User: What shape does this take?
Amino acid sequence: MVTAVQPAAQKQAPRWQDVRAKAIDATFDADRRRVGERVALVFRWLFLIVLGALNNLNPAATSEAKVIIDVVLFGWAVMNVVVQVVLVRGYRPGKQFSLTTMVLDIFFAAGLVYLSDGFNSPFFLALFLAVITNAVRFGATASFLSALLISFLYLFICSSAAASRRPPSTSTPTRPSARCFCSSSSRLPPGT
Assistant: This one.
């Protein structure tokens, strides 16, 4: 009778090996995220330096456009400093932290592309930063999904930037039949 009760009690209480394995997994996961955020931090600083140089050494950009892009880059640098301070102080980032920094990277990169003429923007490289850092943080599958999301976001932002900067049409619209008549009459031989 006593032997029948003991196996039920053993199944309810977790074994010490299971508890230890879960603790080790949690520690490794936190360390992996911390290293991933550190690598993302280095890539972010590198891209900020390149994008800042690209902005300020571009002779085709106006001074107002350079100031606007510099403000966005400054905001991104402030975010980077905050992340760096938090990591140096020993914070162990979780999934929410990684997702938040991912969203902020995409937000700043999309802002750069939108504010600098969409498809003609030299700052499309900023969106590569988001893909690279997502690959480091989350792995191959999440990186592929984020690359798909970022490519659709790029197309949306560039098309909306192009639509907002399109000058209004000043010519009067013509009927298609009039255009066809004019184009066909211009092909007639002279003197007819």
About this structure: The longest helix spans residues 16-56. The helical segments are 2-12, 16-56, 63-88, 95-115, 125-138, 140-165, 176-185. Confidence is low (pLDDT under 50) at residues 174-186. The radius of gyration is 28 Å.
